[in-house]
Amino acid sequence: MQIQLTVNNTVHRLDVPDSALLVEVLRGQLGLTGTHIGCDTSQCGACVVHVDGRSVKSCTMLAAQADGQEVITIEGLAAGEALHPMQDAFRNCHGLQCGFCTPGMIMSAVELVQRSPGLTEAEVRKGLEGNICRCTGYQNIVKAVLEGASGMNAPAAS
After folding, report:
1. Domain 2-76 part of CATH 2.40.160.40
2. Distance set, CA 134 to CA 32, 39, 90, 91 (Å)
3. pTM for the full predicted model
4. Cα-flanking dihedrals φ and ψ of residue 49, to 5°?
5. Is the backbone of residue 16 left (phi > 0), alpha (psi -120 to 50) or beta?
6. Which of 46, 114, 126 lies closest to 84 in space, CA to CA?
7. What is the spatial distance between Cα 70 and Cα 49, in angstroms, rounded to a whole number?
């Protein structure tokens, strides 16, 4: 079947099998390998992307379901060479170790902050329940999300 997706602000017309998952199309056909496949059961959150502004586990969505929609992956979050405030915060706060879960964690965190700008530590922990990190104790991840939220909510420099 043929679908059209806007991925990271670029329109793509693609031929995909009816059963193709969005994550498979992003990685295999578009070469956007920052979206990871971590569990094959939709438990880990390593595959989270934004579809029309909402966090979605792309291993649970058929590519055909995203037809006509806007998809943002971790590769599209930054503005050119300037990291998104959440990406910058994960780097500054050492909110990663191996980095495998980090793209999905960041994508989930961005939407979480957009929905609820004044998050508490407890709300961050609750909001990231669908993302699993096998390396860290989550302390630095939570710290990074709170710092990233501060950066996202800061007024733009003039």
Report:
1. no
2. 23, 12, 16, 18
3. 0.93
4. -135, 170
5. beta
6. 114
7. 10
Tens of pLDDT, residues 69-98: 999 999 999 998 999 999 999 999 999 889
Q: What's the per-residue H, E or C state across the chain?
A: CEEEEEECCEEEEEECCCCCEHHHHHHHHCCCCCCCCCCCCCCCCCCEEEECCEEEECCCCEHHHHCCCEEECHHHCCECCECCHHHHHHHHCCCCCCCCCHHHHHHHHHHHHHHCCCCCHHHHHHHCCCCCCCCCCCHHHHHHHHHHHHHHHCCCCC
The domain at 85-157 falls in which architecture?
Orthogonal Bundle (1.10)
pLDDT, mean of residues 59-76: 97
Give the pLDDT confidence of 103-116 residue by residue, as tens digits. 999 999 999 999 99
What residue ranges do the domains of the chain occupy?
A: 2-76, 85-157
The residues near 43 (Cβ < 8 Å, ≥ 6 apart) are: 132
Mean per-residue pLDDT over the chain, rounded: 94
